Amino acid sequence: MCHHSVPSIVTPIRNKRKLFTAISIDYILVLGFYIIIALTAIFAFGGNIQQVYTLNFQVDKCSNNHTNPASITGFEIFLPTFPIFTLFSSYTIIALTLINNMKVLISFNDDMYYGRLVQYSMPLIAIIPPLVIALFTEDVSAIVQYVGSYSGTLIQYVFPALLVYYSRKHVQQEYLLPFIKRRSKSQWLNIRTINIEQIYYRINPFVSFFQTKLWVYFTGIWWIICICLVTLDHLRDRFAFY
């Protein structure tokens, strides 16, 4: 969700000279908090950590162990139900994003013959599947284990990498190359024979540090490694072969 809000935050900012530093500090702080959570979880729960972190704070009524922070009055309800507060905010944003993406996918406009039907059916498509899954599923960790590990990696690594790759290719073909041709007064330039990245860096001083294609390829390789490791972990839990 940190990445989800970046475009809407960056776009209205007029002076972007210190934007890279500000966002870098923000991500470093987020990383620091994640490291703190991971370390405290390791020291507090050892090797018996649930897939959903807040499930570790469930209180066993039959036990006399009061070392669990959730045994404190007030925390007993707040800690296990904390994901509900985050889902209230993120679910709405994700549902609206999904609806807008579906409208773009079918080139939706108000003048369509079935425009009103499509307009009211898309929110139902975004709301009904997770509602049905929530009604018929009790094991939340199973959903996180499979849906989060496989489809989550596609959303986190593959789709952004493909989006960046083809977006840059489109920008180079449709905008950057014609611009270079106009400036050089040559109509025989080939995009493969010139250093597009170097020229683009001169044109746009705010270009990303991750502009090279190596980062896109690295993301794909990292996705394959993650899928292999997650699959081995699932096989280990299911068959206990090591």
From TrEMBL:
A biological process from GO: amino acid transmembrane transport
Where does it localize? Cell inner membrane
Query: Topology in the membrane?
Result: Multi-pass membrane protein
- List keywords of the entry alphabetically: Cell inner membrane, Cell membrane, Membrane, Transmembrane, Transmembrane helix, Transport
Gene Ontology CC annotations of this record: plasma membrane
Tell me the InterPro entries matching this sequence.
Amino_acid_transport_2
Give a single Pfam family match.
Trp_Tyr_perm
Query: Which parts form a coiled-coil structure per UniProt?
Result: none
**Where does the sequence pass through the membrane?**
20-45, 77-99, 120-137, 143-166, 214-232
UniProt-recorded name of the protein: Uncharacterized protein
